[in-house]
Design a protein that fits this description.
Elements (H helix, E strand, L loop, with lengths): L6 E4 L5 H12 L3 E6 L3 H13 L4 E5 L5 H15 L4 E4 L14 H29 L3 E6 L15 H19 L3 E8 L14 H9 L10 H11 L10 E4 L9
Parallel strand pairs: 1-2, 1-4, 2-3, 4-5, 5-6, 6-7
Helix pairs in contact: 1-2, 1-7, 3-4, 4-5
The chain binds 1,4-dihydronicotinamide adenine dinucleotide and the ligand C[C@H](O)[C@@H]1OC(=O)[C@H](O)[C@@H]1O.
Ligand LFPNKLMZ binds next to loops.
GO molecular function: oxidoreductase activity, acting on the CH-OH group of donors, NAD or NADP as acceptor; quinone binding
Family: Belongs to the short-chain dehydrogenases/reductases (SDR) family.
Enzyme class: oxidoreductase
């Protein structure tokens, strides 16, 4: 049990990586509050799994693109669970589209959800941790895409580089408060975010062929690395970025 008695908050946890992180935290002894955007059934199912593990779970609806959601999520989580020990910034979108005719509203929405949302959520969680006075851990779900490009992801990859950079600067700003800030950089993980893109079986095979470990990732592959960074096992780790990509990034030839 790496998070026994801790309170963990996860954004975008009605599905995918966020959901796996939330349930993984509960499996490690944490009570968990999740933020979600619109999938009431997915959020309820996640809370039900947390509670089946004997922990308290709470789901709070809100669009992370709205700065007010961050204040609301932290305040209502504290109301329900008492405090915030760990904050996992996960919510994100990636509407694949070509560069030359990328609609301005797609760029704007992607920036607001992935980067502005991360900024205000991390800031609100950090303020709560500072108020509590005994440190904490923040883990952001960035991406291998913080380091490499994507033809149909010109609006998305800068947000993931931004989240990675946010963790580095926040690590400096919050170290004096005992708050650690790290990111995980997933490779290609099979979730709803890329279901349509990977319906192209040629592309899916190409992506899998790049992975030395021989397969694309599953949401649960991220739970362990996120829980590790959130836990006291990583007590001297801050400002770090952990690739969780089956080796895809280093596989040049
Ligand atoms: N699947 C992949 O290959 C990779 C995913 N990531 C990142 O992982 C994170 C999670 O994505 P996945 O689990 O893959 O996809 P997903 O589509 O299964 O999950 C995304 C989650 O974010 C939530 N969300 C979306 N917009 C939101 C909003 N405005 N407010 C609140 N919640 C919102 C969704 O409801 C959902 O729970 C994202 O930040 C994504 O960029 C990073 C690298 C690779
Ligand atoms: C959504 C993509 O399949 C996924 O998102 C990322 O951040 C990875 O780099 C993959 O491209």
């Amino acid at each position: 049990m790496l998070l026994e008695g801790k309170t963990v908050l996860v954004t975008g946890a009605s599905a995918g990586i966020g959901r796996a992180a939330a349930i993984g935290a509960a499996r490690h002894g944490a009570n968990v509050a999740i933020n979600y955007h619109s999938d009431d059934a997915g959020a309820a199912a996640c809370v039900a799994e947390i509670e089946a593990l004997g922990r308290t779970g709470v789901a709070i609806k809100g669009d992370v693109a709205d700065p007010a959601t961050a204040q609301d999520f932290i305040a209502r989580s504290v109301e329900a669970l008492g405090r915030v020990d760990v904050f996992v910034n996960n919510a994100g979108i990636c509407p694949f589209h070509a560069f030359l005719d990328m609609p301005a509203e797609t760029v704007d929405r992607t920036f607001r959800v992935n980067l502005h949302g991360a900024y205000y959520m991390v800031q609100a969680a950090a303020n709560q941790m500072v108020k509590q006075g005994d440190g904490g851990a923040i883990v952001a779900v960035s991406s291998i895409s913080a380091l490499v490009g994507g033809e149909y992801q010109t609006h998305y990859t800068p947000t993931k580089a931004g989240v990675h950079s946010l963790m580095q600067s926040a690590a400096i700003a919050l170290g004096k408060h005992g708050i650690r800030c790290n990111s995980v950089l997933p490779g290609t993980i099979l979730t709803d975010i890329n279901k349509d893109d990977l319906a192209d079986l040629d592309k899916r095979e190409r992506m899998a062929a790049r992975v030395p470990l021989g397969r694309l990732g599953k949401p649960d592959d991220l739970a362990g690395p996120i829980i590790f960074l959130a836990s006291d096992l990583a007590r001297y780790v801050t400002g770090a970025a952990l690739l969780v990509d089956g080796g895809a990034f280093v596989n040049l030839q």
